[in-house]
Amino acid sequence: MKKIIILLLIAVSSLVYADHGWERVNYMQSTIFSAEVTVNNKPALADDVVGAFVNNECRMIAKVFMVGDKAYVSSVIHGDSPEQVEFRLWLHQKDSIVVSPQKVATTPGGSLLHFSLNFVMK
Question: Could you give the domains of the chain?
Fold first, then answer.
């Protein structure tokens, strides 16, 4: 019985403490970024996390927050020169990552505001 309880506690704690595992790399310059976040054209969930990547290097980690019935992120994308950024969404409830087909070029010292990120799950 003790073994079953311990196994259940481990299983539950792994769900509660699941994480995307990303580590952001910081640069002296950055691009201010904000976006509405959807998954299959529906709002992402609070506690989901968006990451911005350049050549697999994480440049931004932003937790999704809700305003009314819409999901958003607001953060900065680190980088000293204009670069193409790929976005990934960590789905907290499913502990899985979805990659967006959308890419954007950063503008260090500038901003990318009111962007729309739609992730597609198959």
Answer: 19-119 (2.60.40)
